[in-house]
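ESCALATION

Customer reports they have been waiting on this structure for their group meeting. Please prioritize. Original submission:
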Amino acid sequence: MRRWILALLLTLALVAAACGGNDDAESGGDAPSVSTEEAEPEVPTVQDAEPAEAETETEPQATEPEEGEPEPAEPEEAGPEETAPEDAAPEEPEPVVLTASFRGVTETEIKIGVGFVDASEFGIDSGDIEAQWKAAIDRANDAGGVNGRLLAPVFASYSPVDDAAIEAVCVQFTEDEEVFAFVGFVLWDGVLCYTELYGFLAVNTADMAPDVLERSGGLLFTAQAGLIEKVSGLINAAAADGLIDGKKIQIQAAGDDQTLLGPVQELVEAAGGIVTRAVFGTASPGDLPAGEAEAGVWVERAEADGTDAILAFNTAGYIATGAVERAGSDLVVITDSIARAGYVDLGYDPGRVNIYAYGVPTLQDLYNAGQAGVAECVENYESRSGNVVNVNVPSPRPNNLPATVRACRGVDLFVAIATAAGPVLTQDSFLEAARGLGSFDLTGTTSASLGDGKYSADNAPLVRLVWDSETSNFVSGN
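Update from on-call: job pushed to the front of the queue and completed.
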């Protein structure tokens, strides 16, 4: 696996990549309707005796009944009709009996493997990540779990750059624990151990490249936006600010994203931009000085080409910003690289660059606005764990807001699909439910949906963000 250190820093300190609460109700699948319509009971008709003809000019005489003929019975007062047993209210449908319908699924539980990154070796403190996932899972279980089954997690962590550790956890979950699905946070192509190698379901909370989604054969779902969809949103937002049409654009990508250069160039040209160069990182993974030197050369070439702006997407914006800052260049940097750590931890200052950063409103903004379920997620974690989430704290340590929300997002996504799958939970019913899920609520975003061929849930449009030098973070421009 290629480990581009800047991608690592982005993802580990991720600002959970999403905004606002979703207005659309969660789709849980329609239960079959039970008919309450009954046939009207047949009421026997009573034949009224024909009245005797009235005699003219004489008083009517009571008619004596003929011998042997029974006297007509006095009419009884009408009372409530007795309801025949077959006309009673329809019986309640028999309760669904949950069964052990699939590997990892019993009558009462769904076993999931929850894997997450331990980045302490890089000095990154995201707080008690296992407690964050446990709090999100406990909240889901307290709300009834998944159609009556409770989530039963098995936890494990791994270094983000230790391929052997990532694969060992995968083997633990698939072979030893035989979980129903992986739910968690694993970077780059590490998730393919579950989907491609073992054929297991995976619900991830990291950005996934298109080729990883494709190789997963429909078994991988991510709470994040798709990378190419994010870049499309980035270009649309920049175009609306007049930065693309008729402008000369140099496109920069990290090494792991080089396969996206062609599609991104097409998007830029479709928006009226003129692509001068499309380049990607070739420095050895983790060799930051070499990467910075390479980015410096790209800035020199951009200026020589008369370029108006550098479009650096996904994780490439960090090193591009640093290169423009060191060169003292007036080049515009257009990027969706907005994680604070990607700049601060590397010593870059976006405030000294002509940068146009786009993303979703920050989690801090959403928390303060009471939107997207962020405050509820935080309050749930704090009440269950006794820990405090650092919100509105400059240079927080631990920087635990992103990781707390990430756990809520992962559990939200899994529960939404599994609930829509119905009481007979299998891998096939889970996949079928995802294909027809539509819009649902996902913590930290204004819009989320899944559908046939759509495996990335977050649909939030990108907005302009500005660098706040006091908090050393990007905040919503509006």
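Sent to customer with the following note: The longest strand covers residues 109-117.
Escalation resolved.
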